[in-house]
C-alpha cells in the first residue's frame, strides 16, 4: 500500500497514477496531521480493511493534479547513517580527506526533525558561497516502540519505506549542524508499507541533477543494511512510532546550486523531484 498526504493534509492511497482520499475510513483529522499519523501507524492492522475498501470506492484524483505533502507530517527524531557505502567513503577521502572511518566505527547521528520536508517543497540553501551536496538515500518509518531489538527482528518494527534526500553542507562543523537546516531532509513521494517491499536491502537507487545522472547505486551495497541500522539505533535509545531512519548514501554525491532540479528514484518505492533555491529568495 502506498500512503500519501496531499493537498490540505488529506490522507490518500496511491494506485495506478491516482490518489484516493481515505481520510474518513482512517479516522484522519486534517487539522491534526501529526496526531492522526501516529494513530494510523499504531492502529494500522485494525484500520487496514476499511482503508482498502475506501481506496476502491472513495473519491480519487490524478496524481498530476494534487500536491503531495511530506508523507510523515512531523517526527520526533531522525537517525541517519554516515559513510555506509565503501565507495562513498572512497570519494569523500578523495575530495575532502574526511571519511577515514565508516559507520562500523562511528555509528549513527541525529538530524533535526525540523529539517523534514516533502516531495513538493524546494530545498532552500542557507549560504550562496558554501558547497552543499545532494545525498540519495532509502529512508523508513518506525512502526512500533523498540528498544534493544536485534537486526533479525527489525523487519517487524518497520512500518514503511520512502525515498530521502540528505542535504549536506561541506565544512568542519559537526554533521548534525551541517545537515539539519530547514528543508534538508526531503522525503517522499509516499510511504510504501513494508509488506510491499520484497527486500529493502536490494533496491536500485538513482539521482539526477537536472538531466545528469549523479548517483546510480543499490542498497545491496550497504555496510549496515536497513535492519542493522535499526538495531544500532534502538540500542542507543528507544525508537518510537513515527521516528525516521535514513540509511546512508552511495557514491556520486555532488554539489547543488540555486536553479537546479534534483530527482530521486528508488525501485519499488517511487520518485520525486524538488527545486533548489536560495533561502530568502524562494
Automatic annotation (TrEMBL):
GO terms for biological process: small molecule metabolic process. InterPro entries: FAH, Fumarylacetoacetase-like_C, Fumarylacetoacetase_C_sf. This is 2-hydroxyhepta-2,4-diene-1,7-dioate isomerase. Keywords: Isomerase, Metal-binding. Residues 77-276 form the Fumarylacetoacetase-like C-terminal domain. Pfam families: FAA_hydrolase. SUPFAM superfamilies: FAH. Belongs to the FAH family. GO terms for molecular function: isomerase activity; metal ion binding.
Amino acid at each position: 500500500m502506498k500512503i500519501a498526504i496531499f493537498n490540505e493534509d488529506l490522507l490518500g492511497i496511491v494506485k495506478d497514477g491516482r490518489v484516493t482520499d481515505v481520510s474518513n475510513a482512517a479516522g484522519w483529522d486534517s487539522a491534526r496531521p501529526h496526531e492522526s499519523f501516529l494513530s494510523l501507524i499504531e492502529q494500522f492492522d485494525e484500520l487496514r480493511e476499511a482503508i482498502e475498501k475506501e481506496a476502491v470506492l472513495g473519491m480519487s484524483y490524478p496524481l498530476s493534479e494534487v500536491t503531495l505533502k511530506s508523507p510523515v507530517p512531523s517526527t520526533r527524531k531522525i537517525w541517519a547513517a554516515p559513510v555506509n557505502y565503501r565507495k562513498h567513503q572512497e570519494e569523500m577521502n578523495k575530495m575532502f580527506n574526511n571519511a577515514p572511518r565508516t559507520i562500523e566505527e562511528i555509528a549513527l547521528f541525529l538530524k533535526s526533525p525540523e529539517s523534514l520536508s516533502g516531495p513538493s517543497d524546494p530545498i532552500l540553501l542557507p549560504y550562496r558561497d558554501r558547497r552543499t551536496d545532494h545525498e540519495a538515500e532509502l529512508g523508513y518509518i518506525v512502526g512500533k516502540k523498540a528498544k534493544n531489538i536485534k537486526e533479525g527482528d527489525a523487519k517487524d518494527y518497520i512500518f514503511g519505506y520512502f525515498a530521502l534526500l540528505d542535504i549536506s553542507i561541506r565544512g568542519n562543523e559537526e554533521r548534525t549542524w551541517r545537515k539539519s537546516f530547514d528543508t534538508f531532509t526531503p522525503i517522499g513521494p509516499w510511504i510504501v508499507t513494508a509488506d510491499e517491499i520484497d527486500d529493502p536491502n536490494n533496491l536500485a537507487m538513482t539521482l539526477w541533477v537536472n538531466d545528469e545522472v549523479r548517483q546510480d547505486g543499490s542498497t545491496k551495497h550497504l555496510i549496515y543494511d536497513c535492519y542493522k541500522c535499526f538495531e544500532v539505533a534502538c540500542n542507543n535509545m528507544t525508537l518510537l512510532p513515527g521516528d525516521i531512519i535514513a540509511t546512508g548514501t552511495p557514491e556520486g554525491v555532488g554539489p547543488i546550486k540555486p536553479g537546479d532540479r534534483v530527482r530521486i528514484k528508488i525501485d519499488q518505492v517511487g520518485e520525486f523531484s524538488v527545486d533548489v533555491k536560495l533561502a530568502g529568495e524562494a
